[in-house]
Design goal:
Helix content is 27%, strand content 22%. The protein has nine helices and eight strands. The chain is globular. It starts with 15 loop residues before the first helix and ends in an 18-residue tail after the last strand. The model is unreliable at 206-212 (pLDDT under 50). The structure holds zinc ion. Zinc ion binds next to α2.
Length: 214
């Protein structure tokens, strides 16, 4: 199998660790430029889990996938983590964060669907971004619900156990917006974002462990 990023045959480098690491769609050389930083934080009292540091080759791949339309890269973000995530979120439905209509049209695909479909969990895309002009038509309650520029699509029902998922969390404003339009007493909510933006310095090469994805 060839690396989705550089095209080299995976395992051809003679690198022993490449053979030891769990199967991947990137070669060892490409994957080691991603900083694996599994952890969790909190957003409005809800646990947010994440796995990558955005400021590594994660961001390079994400831009190539999202903005350059390189759909073949959809698997690279979660491939080594899919078993762990599938186990963790069994019984939950993945709920995708919305992109703007302009971005969706420009891309021609729902990028989060591509990233998360490999987990084999049920998925919903129930939110949409809305523009300010729309809000003039609404009453006060509607305007409050749309304060973050996000709303539920019409007649959209959600299951009880949901994971709000996104590619990267920077300020968390989209996720906060989604939380603001959900009645949190009705759902069991978790949040997962592939990457997080941290201000810390990258972990030195020697400090990184193998067997990261167990
Ligand atoms: Zn490669």
């Amino acid at each position: 199998m060839r690396c989705l990023m550089c095209g080299k045959e995976i395992g051809s480098s003679g690198n022993f660790s490449e053979l030891l690491l769990e199967e991947d769609v990137l070669c060892h050389a490409c994957r080691r430029r991603w900083i694996h930083r599994s952890g969790h934080t909190d957003l409005n009292g809800i646990r947010v889990d994440y796995d990558w540091d955005y400021d590594s080759d994660f961001s390079k791949c994400l831009i190539q996938y999202k903005e350059c339309g390189d759909e073949a890269l959809k698997e690279v973000f979660l491939y080594p983590l899919r078993k762990k995530l599938k186990r963790r979120y069994r019984g939950y439905t993945l709920v995708l964060m919305p992109s703007s209509h302009e971005k969706l049209e420009a891309r021609g695909f729902v990028h989060l669907e591509g990233i998360f479909e490999g987990l084999g969990l049920p998925m919903l895309d129930p939110f949409e971004k809305c523009i300010l002009e729309d809000q003039k038509q609404l009453n006060l309650k509607g305007r409050q619900a749309m304060a973050h520029g996000i709303r539920l699509k019409r007649d959209q029902a959600l299951p009880k156990r949901i994971v709000l998922v996104d590619d990267v969390m920077t300020t968390g404003s989209t996720l906060r917006g989604a939380l603001s339009v959900l009645d949190q007493s009705r759902y069991r909510i978790r949040i997962y974002t592939c990457a997080i933006v941290t201000k810390e310095k990258p972990v030195p090469e020697q400090g990184r462990k193998t067997g990261l994805f167990q």
